[in-house]
Amino acid sequence: MKNIVILISGRGSNMEAIVRAAIPGARIAAVIANRPDAAGLAFAAHHGIDTRVVDHKAYPSREAFDEALAAVIDGFAPDLVVLAGFMRVLTNGFVEHYAGRLLNIHPSLLPSFPGLHTHQRALEAGVRVAGTTVHFVTPTLDCGPIVIQAVVPVLPGDDEAALAARVLVQEHRIYPQAVRWFVEGRLSVEGHRVAVLDEAPGPAGWTVPPTGA
Ligand code: GAR
């Protein structure tokens, strides 16, 4: 059984998708938030999952917060730490401590649009497709080896909310898939590329643009 700790900052819908996937061989050991008002904590508690809050505002520095957070995480002996809408930039020390067992989801087709305000920036750039990426976390923000991506069209009239909602549907599909692959021991990282062992032929995750596009 692999222990998984999920970190959230707010709504926690990706955490919810991973919990609901009930991945064989995976145990969600804890859901930890950096904000006491993170809505997702209620869902986790309701499902009998241990919850903790490590409030970043209670710490004088990023380093002090990350150290306190790592101490709580390590209390659950995690095989995998999953960032699911965890809106904190992490120190190198934290990232290196969890090297190879720290996943993140970002709402863009990385390496395009790392950082904040991704949907707004994608719309302003006039891209015709957008999407989402699950990747291993490395010290450079949103730059780690890519596990899976999903593509959605950008449609005429889209605003930030419409695009975010279309992307989120795909996030709920690909994040449980990435976690399942990890738990099955099927991910191997070579340099910047991730191989999925025994993957069926064809692309790992994408949606077909509308006819005529
Ligand atoms: C998701 O869209 C996730 O990709 C994004 O925050 C949202 C969290 O939603 N993460 C980032 O922007 C990280 N840079 P959720 O709380 O409902 O899972």
Report what the structure shows:
The chain has 213 residues and is α/β, with parallel strands linked by helices. It has 2 domains: 1-98, Formyl transferase, N-terminal domain (Rossmann fold, 3-Layer(aba) Sandwich), CATH 3.40.50; 106-213, Formyl transferase, N-terminal domain (Rossmann fold). 31% of the residues lie in helices and 24% in strands. It has helices at 13-21, 40-46, 62-74, 92-97, 118-125, 160-183; strands at 2-8, 26-33, 50-53, 80-83, 102-106, 129-136, 146-153, 187-190, 193-196. The strands form 2 sheets. It has a 7-stranded mixed β-sheet, with helices on one face. A two-stranded antiparallel ribbon has the order 8-9. β2, α2 and β3 (50-53) form a beta-alpha-beta unit. α1 (13-21) runs parallel beside α6 (160-183). The longest helix is centred in the last third of the chain and has 24 residues, at 160-183. It is globular. The model is unreliable at 207-213 (pLDDT under 50). It binds glycinamide ribonucleotide. Glycinamide ribonucleotide (GAR) binds at residues 8, 10-14, 84-85, 105-107, 168, 171.
